[in-house]
């Protein structure tokens, strides 16, 4: 596998990671209130990415293609989770409108523990198995038919690390004090908008899973 092919895969992975989706929305929502929570969510997301990348490079896409029912089931379950997440986010936004936080510290405290946020990030990423098909379409044309194990391992780690660095960068920029102060008043609407996005994305995922059965 040439270095140019390796670089091309990483570049396409970064473009895909930066595209609007549940992961980006989740990290952005947390980053408007707490850098620590945003990075915890990004870490959870990247553990999920590492899982999907490992499955993709080692042939899971072929398995999901051979057994579409498995993909459909995961989509339905994942979609239901995203809808649940969306409802919680909308409720949080409505509560914030009634009782807005007095300062940034209280806004961050309302997000819960970083462990909880990490698990939310992980579950959000794992809820969408289509990442396997996306990665397979991106990797397969550039990967040798029988790559050495070290190439596969290096590719998995590089894909995961590159997208993780992108999410950490996003978390750091959005969570700067100047930006957080400006967005604090908009916190309830950010939660509500994020919730609506999750509900719509979840419903679309459930419908795609049902249609595929």
TrEMBL record:
Question: Would the keyword Cell membrane turn up in this protein's UniProt record?
Answer: yes
Q: Which UniProt keywords apply?
A: Cell membrane, Membrane, Transmembrane, Transmembrane helix
Highest taxon of source:
Bacteria
Chief location: membrane
**Higher taxonomy:** Bacteria, Bacillati, Actinomycetota, Actinomycetes, Mycobacteriales
UniProt name for this protein: Arginine exporter
Chain ranges passing through the membrane: 6-27, 39-64, 70-90, 126-143, 149-174, 186-210
According to its UniProt record, where is this protein located?
Answer: Cell membrane
Q: Which GO terms describe its molecular function?
A: amino acid transmembrane transporter activity
The membrane topology of this protein is:
Multi-pass membrane protein
Q: Which GO terms describe its cellular component?
A: plasma membrane
Which InterPro entries does this one have? LeuE-type
Q: Name one Pfam family in it.
A: LysE
Q: Does the keyword DNA-binding apply?
A: no
